[in-house]
Amino acid sequence: MRCRHLLCAGLAVLLLWGGGGAWATGSAWAQGTDRAAGTVLAQFEKARALAVDPRERLYVADAGRSVVGIFEADGTRRAVLGGAGTRPGTFDTPSAIDPTNGQVLLVADTYNGRVQRLSTEGQYLESLPVGQTGRRAAGEWTFQDGQGGASVQGDVRPIGVARDDEGAVFVLDSRNRQVWKWSDVGQARAVVSGRGGRLQDPVALALGPDRRLYVADAGREAVLIYECELRVESK
């Protein structure tokens, strides 16, 4: 699996954190390019995460406006998903995105304590509450469709999400300093823990093509590498 959270070096895009939260319209390339500064794609209130899908669409999580913007490869804005709220399809500080195969979008909806799954056309599909909720037993970790407008929320703070080629979903929880793995058959477990000083202040994760899990830990000033079997390779 490719690391989808790393923006290709060949894509010269400058993201500006603006006070008004205005978004550029039309083709960004029509605005002109400064080789030193890059091309201004759009302005965001608080751009938090980027991802590119196999069709070269760019996804931007704007935590300030609680939306996800989708741009075509030529810079044209395709859609703006979400908006502030707790209901399905809305966000509270989205912090990470994984467009997987370009057909389904996973969004770490941080302060709602969940990962949402949407189509790339913006249709809400289901939510994965991370941590404890009032609607399920401890240890149960399943996607819920939230039909009828019901909120689906967990009690932790997911700030990273990635899906591997076998369908497993990895979620980085900043509150408990853990990485959770949700398998394609609905089983879940904490695969990396903050206990014992292993994770101090994790801020990001990515999956490599060699089935390794990479975790950036600001507290340890290090990037940790884990095998899927969870043996630490380097730090």
Summarize the structure.
By secondary structure, the chain is mainly beta.
Shape by Cα distribution: globular
Please bin the fraction of helical residues: under 10%
The CATH architecture assignment turns out to be 6 Propeller
Could you give a short account of the major beta sheet?
Answer: 4 strands, antiparallel
Task: Please give the radius of gyration in angstroms.
Answer: 17 Å
- Which regions contain 5 or more consecutive residues with pLDDT less than 50? 1-22, 24-32, 135-141, 230-235
Which strand order spans the largest sheet, edge to edge or round the barrel?
A: 3-4-5-6
Sequence of secondary-structure elements: EEEEEEEEEEEEEEEEEE
User: What would the average pLDDT be, to the nearest integer?
Assistant: 77
- The CATH class is Mainly Beta
Structural class, from secondary structure content? mainly beta
What's the quaternary structure here? single chain
CATH topology: Neuraminidase
Q: How many strand segments? A: 18
Count of helix runs: 0
